[in-house]
Amino acid sequence: MRLRVRIPAVEPLIMVAPEECPYDECQGKYFKRHQEHCDKAVRDTKYEQVEVYRRKCLSCERTHRVYPQGVSKAQQTDRLKGVSVMLYVLGVSYRGVEDFLMALGFYLSYSSVYRNVQAAGGKVRQLRQAWLEQRQGKIRVVGGDLTYVKCQGEQVVIGVAVDAQEGITLDIKVLDNQETDTLKAWLLPLLELVGAEVLTTDDADAFKTVADEAGVEQQVCRRHVTLNVLDFISKMVECVLNQPPAVPAGLDVTPEQLLADLETLEWIMLGHPGQGDQLLQELFLRYAAAAPPKKGQRATVWYRMRNHLLHLWDHWNRLTCYRTLRHSRGLALDATNNCTERAIGWSVKDRYRTMRGYKRNISILNVSSLTAWLLERPAHYDMSPLFAS
Q1: Under a CB-based contact definition with an 8 Å cutoff, are residues 173 and 362 in contact?
Q2: What is residue 155's DSSP assignment?
Q3: Has residue 326 been placed in a domain?
Q4: Contact assessment for residue 225 and residue 319, using Cβ atoms and an 8 Å cutoff
Q5: Residues 90, 180: one domain?
Q6: Cβ neighbours for 116, distance < 8 A, ≥ 6 positions apart
Q7: What are the respective helix, strand and coil percentages of the chain, to the nearest 5?
């Protein structure tokens, strides 16, 4: 992982005074100096103390401090917070960050590092939501997928949604389960907010229901489906060659014809020909009369072939959506869901691989959101907004 960011600077001579009174119940905008040259002890990589001043609000007559750039009422400076957060995101543990900073002469407990990371992650989620609201109606293709991490020893479902054209994370959410209603509650508002035209996902039926209810096109990941079909073909071929199955009554087909049809199916899945739906229909009709298994029996190769062809024929438009939209709307669309999978790998799984698991669901959100945000920022991104109060 590479993070090209800038750690917040501390400028003792630059005072950043708020324009309004910092007390919630007061909105005063006029102040006067109340006390000059107050020293404040800080934890920083360079300074041990900085100079602040106090001023008085003329509306509520209360005083507050004005701090230099990079300094707040916290004991740590934004610079030290930025260093600790960056080290953690790069893969160092909380205690590892404490040990590293101690070796450099900057004391910061691992619990303070933890609080810095969680606070920065919470701030990122606010920034992400504000950015998302500015993108209303501007994101045409959304990619969605699920992954799993451990929290207190149990598997937790994580939903990740991305802008599939730009590769930018839109949302990371802890879900109760992977049921259809849960996915609808998560994705439907998001698709409506960004004005999505296409949803790119894997082959799960729940995602198909979401796309249909949202009224958007769906591109089912071509790679996932192709690998599954090729695996099915190899097992069927092995079964037929090892022990040619008996042809049931009412089915006008032979084992040799089945092998030829499996070869045709492989060609259809690898090539996605324009007449693919017609070819699948013809293949299906050849096996449509195959009888389902009786109770306690296994499905025959004929019936398995029938069901597989029916599923592919029914959803052929979802498999070839990328081609249809390219010609009808001029929309360049990836036939896979690799964009979402990359976001999961870098934002959720990369940091998780070095951990034993999480202790709180909110930590999953904070760490994953923080990692995604920093990875997606342009080079030399200033981390200062992550520590703004």
Answers
A1: no
A2: E
A3: no
A4: yes
A5: no
A6: 76, 81, 84, 85
A7: 45, 20, 35
CB atoms within 10 A of CB 364: 23
* In the block, residue with structure tokens 């994705």: 187
pLDDT value of position 194: 95
In a domain, 329, yes or no: no
Q: In whole angstroms, what is the distance from residue 8 CA to residue 272 CA?
A: 51
The amino acid at residue 162 is V
CA atoms within 13 A on the CB side of 26: 19
The CA distances from residue 283 to 96, 105, 249, 333, in Å, are 60, 73, 18, 29
Q: What percentage of the chain carries pLDDT values higher than 90?
A: 84
**How distant is the alpha carbon of residue 57 from its chain centre?**
45
On whether both 202 and 239 belong to a single domain, the answer is: no
Question: In angstroms, what is the C-alpha Rg of the chain?
Answer: 29
13 and 125 in a single domain? The answer is yes
Q: 254 lies in a domain?
A: yes
Do 256 and 199 share a structural domain?
no
Percentage of the chain lying above the pLDDT 70 cut: 100
Determine the structural domain holding residue 189 and report its residue range. 139-221+336-345
Q: Which amino acid is at 208?
A: K
In the chain, which ranges are continuous DSSP H helix? 78-89, 94-103, 110-134, 180-194, 205-214, 222-242, 255-271, 276-287, 301-314, 316-319, 321-328, 338-343, 350-352, 361-376
How many C-beta atoms surround the C-beta of residue 134 within 10 A?
Answer: 7
Cross-strand pairs, 66:
53
Alpha carbon of residue 50 to chain centroid: 40
Predicted local confidence at residue 353, as pLDDT: 82
Domain total for the chain? Answer: 3
pLDDT of residue 37: 83
| Closest to 305 measured CA to CA, from 265, 269, 337 | 265
pLDDT over threshold 90, residue 82? yes
